[in-house]
C-alpha cells in the first residue's frame, strides 16, 4: 500500500500480514480522493475513519493536510499499527479501540467526512446501521458526507440519506448526505 498524494506521496506502508484487513486498492483510493478534493479543502476538515484497519485512508488524509483524524477499529493489532505508523510519520491521527457499532451508539464526535470500510461480507442490515447511527446521532458537520466502501455485489441505494455511489473495479463507494 502506498500514499498517493501530499506530503508523504509515494511512501510505502507495509502492514503486518496477520491483520484482519482488506486495504482499499490504490486505484479506488485515488478515484475517491479525486472526488473528495473537489468537495473540500483537506486542511479545513475533520475525518472519522470507521473500521480503520491499516489506517490506509487516514494516512492519505493526513498526507494531504488534514489535522483532525480519528480512527476507530476493534482489532488491537490494527490500532497498534496505526499508532506506530502515525507516530513514525508525525501524522495527527487519534485512535479509538472499539467495536464500531458500540462507538457509534454513544459517539458525540462530529466530522466533515465519515469514512466506513466494514467487512464486505456484511449483510444489508449491518450496513444500514452505519448511516442510521451517523444521522440519528448527528455525527456529520454541516455539508458533511458519510462514505461507505463495499463490494459491487452490495447495493446500498435503498438506505436512508443515500445520495449516490461510484464504482471502481470491485469497489463501490456509497455517499450519504443529510436530507
UniProtKB/TrEMBL annotation:
Keywords: Methyltransferase, Transferase
SUPFAM superfamilies linked: S-adenosyl-L-methionine-dependent methyltransferases
EC number(s) stated in the UniProt entry for this protein: 2.1.1.171
Lineage start: Bacteria, Pseudomonadati, Bacteroidota, Flavobacteriia, Flavobacteriales
Molecular function GO terms recorded: 16S rRNA (guanine(966)-N(2))-methyltransferase activity; nucleic acid binding
Lineage: superkingdom: Bacteria
EC class: transferase
PROSITE patterns registered for this protein in UniProt: N6_MTASE (PS00092)
Transmembrane segments: none
UniProt-listed InterPro entries: DNA_methylase_N6_adenine_CS, RNA_MeTrfase_RsmD, SAM-dependent_MTases_sf
Name listed for the protein in its UniProt record: 16S rRNA (Guanine(966)-N(2))-methyltransferase RsmD
Amino acid at each position: 500500500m502506498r500514499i498517493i498524494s501530499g506530503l508523504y506521496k509515494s511512501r510505502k506502508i507495509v502492514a503486518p500480514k496477520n491483520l484482519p484487513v482488506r486495504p482499499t486498492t490504490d486505484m479506488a483510493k485515488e478515484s475517491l480522493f479525486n472526488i473528495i478534493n473537489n468537495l473540500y479543502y483537506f486542511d479545513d476538515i475533520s475525518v472519522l475513519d470507521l473500521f480503520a484497519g491499516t489506517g490506509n485512508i487516514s494516512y492519505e488524509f493526513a498526507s494531504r493536510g488534514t489535522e483532525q483524524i480519528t480512527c476507530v477499529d476493534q482489532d488491537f493489532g490494527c490500532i497498534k499499527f496505526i499508532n506506530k505508523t502515525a507516530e513514525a510519520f508525525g501524522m495527527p491521527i487519534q485512535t479509538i479501540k472499539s467495536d464500531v457499532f458500540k462507538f457509534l451508539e454513544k459517539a458525540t464526535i462530529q466530522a466533515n467526512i465519515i469514512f466506513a470500510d466494514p467487512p464486505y461480507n456484511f449483510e444489508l442490515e449491518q450496513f444500514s446501521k452505519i448511516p442510521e447511527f451517523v444521522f440519528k446521532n448527528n455525527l456529520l458537520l454541516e455539508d458533511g458526507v458519510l462514505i461507505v466502501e463495499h463490494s459491487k455485489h452490495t447495493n446500498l441505494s435503498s438506505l436512508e440519506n443515500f445520495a449516490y455511489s461510484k464504482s471502481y473495479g470491485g469497489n463501490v463507494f456509497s455517499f450519504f448526505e443529510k436530507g
